[in-house]
Design a protein that fits this description.
CATH superfamily of the largest domain: Thiolase/Chalcone synthase
GO biological process, one term: secondary metabolite biosynthetic process
Radius of gyration: 19 Å
CATH class of the largest domain: Alpha Beta
Number of strands: 12
Mean pLDDT: 94
Structural class: alpha/beta
Number of domains: 2
InterPro entries: ACP_syn_III_C, ACP_syn_III_N, Thiolase-like
Strand content: 15-25%
GO molecular function, one term: 3-oxoacyl-[acyl-carrier-protein] synthase activity
Organism: Mycobacterium simiae (Mycobacterium habana)
Low-confidence stretches: none
CATH architecture of the largest domain: 3-Layer(aba) Sandwich
Strand order of the largest sheet: 1-7-6-4-5
Keywords: Acyltransferase, Transferase
């Protein structure tokens, strides 16, 4: 007689977020706007507001401020006792390494695992959920903290030359953290991660005059967008995000119409509309903060999840689907969680 050993249940039990500074209105960028071939592209329709990281504010500072919500609700001892720390920073303060070690020190943690993820991009939170679940199931710990910081808006996109371009007005800064534990409180029911290596490297930096990012020069760093690239990214994003969400639905036996809350990354309004239409979900079940926060990159999913929970968009027992894609479409991921309510 065979004995079936069931895997431990892993839950996303809480999330908390932080937005730096006061909201910055669209008129801030309007005063700098110059003629730009991409100015009218749907990809760059500006949000009403966004937040910018302060000049002396680091990714570690942002995560520490986001983590305060978890500490208030769960106790400092829960955070200090975290076994696994997983981080993602959009623009690392030092190019050669992530913020994991500094975050661990700032939050008083002595984790056995510290992992800095760089490839997850706008879907980094879901990738980190997948990593956390696998590590905890392996027996390497009982708790994990996921920390994501988006800090490129006020540092990269607000450079004097870059802020004149169409792309500059869309990004916003923010940070969020998620607490993952071995428990059945808010079980992670399924995760799908897909890498599309054929598109790796298609998101490029385009300083003028051209140079490597580490070489001295006068050209400011910005993203190299063209009409052709944008068309391809729109097509990939429209296809990839519903595909991974539907793959999770199929695996766990969930009908898309039974998703209570869809939370995605938020590059622009076009993607947001197309994704919910592809999943046949009404707008009131797809929460976003695009007009308040802009494109939050990797922080978008956890920031939106935190604000949706705080705003009463999902009750205990609700089915939450998180989904997003990264860069020019080289990665996409989705995760389903049965939300168990805040501690």
């Amino acid at each position: 007689m065979k004995h079936v050993v069931s895997q431990p249940v892993v839950s996303l039990v809480d999330v908390a977020s932080y937005l730096p500074g006061e909201p910055i209105g669209a008129d801030y960028y309007a005063q700098f706007a110059q003629s730009d071939a991409l100015r009218d592209n749907l990809m760059f329709r500006a949000p009403a507001f966004r937040h910018h990281v302060a000049p002396d504010e680091t990714a570690i500072d942002m995560v520490e401020r986001a983590a305060q919500g978890l500490i208030d609700r769960n106790g400092a001892e829960v955070i200090e006792g975290v076994d696994v720390l997983i981080t993602h920073t959009q623009a690392p303060d030092v190019p050669f390494y992530g913020a994991g070690g500094g975050i661990a020190h700032r939050l008083g943690m002595r984790p056995s695992w510290v992992l800095d993820l760089h490839n997850g991009g706008c879907a980094a939170f879901v990738l980190a959920l997948n990593v956390a679940r696998q590590v905890l199931v392996s027996g390497a710990g009982r708790t994990a903290l996921i920390a994501v910081a988006q800090n490129a808006a006020g540092q990269v996109f607000d450079q004097p030359g870059v802020r004149r371009t169409a792309q500059a007005a869309v990004p916003g800064d923010g940070a969020a953290v998620g607490l993952v534990t071995l428990s059945d409180r808010s079980p992670i029911l399924g995760i799908e991660c897909r890498t599309y290596g054929e598109y790796a490297g298609e998101m490029t930096l385009a300083p003028d005059p051209p140079r490597k990012w580490w070489q001295p020069g006068t050209g400011e760093l910005c993203i190299g967008f063209t009409e052709s690239k944008i068309t391809k990214v729109l097509a990939r994003g429209n296809r990839q995000v519903p595909a991974v969400a539907l793959a999770v639905c199929d695996r766990i036996g969930l009908l898309p119409k039974d998703i209570d809350l869809l939370v995605t990354n938020q590059p622009n309004r076009v993607f947001l509309r197309n994704w919910r239409e592809a999943l046949e979900l009404p707008e009131q079940r797809h929460f976003d903060t695009f007009d308040e926060c802009g494109n939050l990159f990797g922080a978008g999913i956890p920031v939106n999840l935190d604000r949706a929970i705080s705003g009463g968009w999902v009750a205990a027992g609700g089915m939450v689907m998180m989904a997003g894609f990264a860069h020019a479409g080289d990665f996409a991921a989705a995760a389903a969680v049965c939300w168990g309510g805040r501690p």
